[in-house]
Amino acid sequence: MLTDLTLAEARDGLRARKFSAVELTDAYLAAIEAVNPKLNAYVLVTGEAARAQALAADAALARGDAGPLAGIPLAIKDLFCTQGVRTTAGSRILEPFIPPYESTVTANLLRDGAIFLGKANMDEFAMGSSNMTSAFGPVTSPWTRRGDNRALVPGGSSGGSAAAVSARIALGATATDTGGSIRQPASFCGITGIKPTYGRCSRWGVVAFASSLDQAGPVARNVEDAAILLRSMAGFDPKDSTSADLPVPDFAAACRRGVKGLRIGVPKEYRSEGMPAEIEALWQQGLGWLREAGAEIVDVSLPHTKYGLATYYIVAPAEASSNLARYDGVRFGARTAGEDLASLYENTRAEGFGAEVRRRVLIGTYVLSAGYYDAYYLKAQKVRALILKDFTDVFRTVDALVTPTAPSAAFAQGEKMDDPITMYLNDIFTVPANMSGIPGLSVPAGLDAQGLPLGLQVLGRPFDEETVFAVGAALERAAGFTALPGIRAGAGAGG
Amino acid sequence: MAYTIEGSTGPWEVVVGLEVHAQVISQSKLFSGAATAYGASPNSQVSFVDAAFPGMLPVPNREAIAQAVRTGLGLNAQINLVSRFDRKNYFYADLPQGYQISQFEHPIVGTGVVEIELADGSTKEVGITRLHLEQDAGKSVHDQHPTKSFIDLNRSGVALMEIVSEPDIRSPEEAGAYVKKLRSILRYLGTCDGNMEEGSLRADVNVSVRKAGEAYRTRCEVKNVNSVRFVMQAVEVEALRQIAVWEGGGEVQQETRLFDPNRGETRSMRSKEDAHDYRYFPDPDLLPVVLEQGWVDGLKAALPELPDAKQARFMAEYGLSRYDAGVLVAEQATALFFEGVAKGRDAKIAANWVTGDFFAAMNRTGRTIEDPPVSAAALGQLLDLMADSTINGKIAKEVFEAMVETGKGPAAIVDERGLRQVTDTGAIDAAVDAVIAANPEKVAEYRSGKDKLFGFFVGNVMKAMAGKGNPALVNAALKAKLG
What ipTM, to 2 d.p.? Predict the structure, then answer.
């Protein structure tokens, strides 16, 4: 069926006029209708607009001036502002918000002919690793443990995007990654996701969580699809001062490079205590595949890794506490009246923000406060510089690093909810890439004993996503990961 | 003699430092492309960035940065090639982001100096601590509705320079002179229009008092003082208040106060305990501001001649007094006008005419130096008519008034009204003879030694000649005939 095609296959099929963009879009809309009620991956489906975009794509394909993504149906994480289409960031406080502008990343995708199926669910303001913090209900993973029907989490914060791609109710999706929010859900859902180098994709029009860490990227069926999507999403944007004025390479071409002669680093600090043996085993297997493909495997040390998570949970909430100050009920979004200005703020924010967002705003406010700034924020920034230096040092001797993406497979909804720290530990392997700005990709490499996907993470030099794609594609070829989730388009009512 | 205030316990010294907020002249705001015109209808000059919509990002306006650098150069200050924008976090309805983007730890301009001139002719240097760039907030309007406040975001995001002085100021006069001098420099540079009524220049005045030789005592900050006169008043009334507190056995508490010009007093706004914790941290949306020395040098080379340099040149080149030169250079347009009049003429006479009759006519008619009652060229022509003896000084004043009234050139007025000076010695002799003949007693008194009466004869001869006699020739004829 049409929804089984990869992005590259669908693109080629559209160009060969084997099927139309309208047919492809309708197939996805039908799949959404059938599958989304089980997953809650979309918070908004824009079927009518999608069909109109599909008609335009077919016209462009007929004229021969179609863009590289003409007719490709995507899900858009609800953190990207979409003109005239409600954008909530997974929060009550933005429930009524309809942006009068289009984010640069989504505008780039539209420029290239993509079709937007709707807005993908996510953890509120991208704060979470389970998609349990969404104001619009949790997303259920399309995967279940063998012989266990409990609903699992898809990971987060881009849980809706990952679940939609995995369940084949989107051909690809935009996502964002502040501490692992692309890579961890990709790992949990058995798909590919890349957080490119900080500055590669414009942040303009993306609702901010932690500005110095936020970065947009794609989740997709496979490495090549992710490369195709990233090429369209990326690019210099003068409206974002932190955007990099660099040409965007042909990432898909890099997927075919191979790894012969590359030096792949294995950071010893990623061997965390209590990591499941099957993750350790999969990691070793991945390194073995790369060695067989001609890469040299080198042990390296990133001595400040152990401070990554702690410093992340200072820096990210600090920036968030300031970034979220604008949600005050005065100019846009939800508003709960009060007797005076202070009570307007208090009522609006108490009703508008969920518990996790409130917790992080409190943490962030605390670490920036007079008397605590030096001990927390300033110190965290110094550690951050050391984490970057660790990477700079090892990338003098290796071309990429390979690690597990997450310390576990997907967990059940409601698990790890009692203690926020347990949840935060999910980000332990992904956070260093955000703290240092380097690119990181997660590629599915195998299943655990319960039949849940596990991903491996490839980290690379700043703005060298090409090597990351090359290594990711080599792992993908060797792994031959073909497992499919129980809940997916065309899988039937039983799943 | 240093300024002191006499209290019941003896003299008190006043210590003042100023924080001046100067709105940058720029087509667009500090971090958005929205326009900055004053007086536009509410919320008509607001971009999504200024209104802090989700996902909007600030992009520094290069011209605003250039303006700050020009100002730093004009204040003889250190230009920091690397500076940084920080967020100052606080909630208010007219602060859409919930933080102001400012520069806290690393301002774009470091220490500098401004020289001020006082009424007694002395000069004094006031140190500049720093200059930094920041966003202005919007405006809350509380008088449009019984229970609601309205918010106008036109000003939100407009670029401000905060110019902080050292606590070098010791009197209301010095405080006033400092603000005036700063305004003059900013206007010369074209970096701020200095318009205090429209709020494009506002001062926060930090005041403390102490006994001679003491360390600084606790200071209070008087916020948002919006005229030179009010700055001077605020210094004085706040110093008096603090002296009364100290002498009453109390202790001045560090706090923020408001100046009420109607009542001539300052009132407590918030105490130190209520002070905001602004939670400053580097703005992660913005990269550090990194300037090239060559770019700074280019701005420096293109700076106009500034008031101090111009004053020195006017003294050296035109032989003007320090005071006259100071008056003429306070406004760039005045200096330009003066030079238009003085070029190729007697500069001292030109200065006297510009600061005397011309300024008087400007005040009287309510015109400005940009739209003067008499052009520099016309005033120059009038001076030429005196220089070549076509008219004398007394007639010149009459001609000048006619120029103001009619807008005609001086030569035309002289011709129309027959004001040409009489140099015909025959006519002068006849007038002298008539005056001598009519005043035999005065002539006798003069000849018996009352020299002072000479002026009486000059006056009567000129009167007889309707003021048009050449003064030198009249003097000579009188001297000859009176013996």
Answer: 0.96
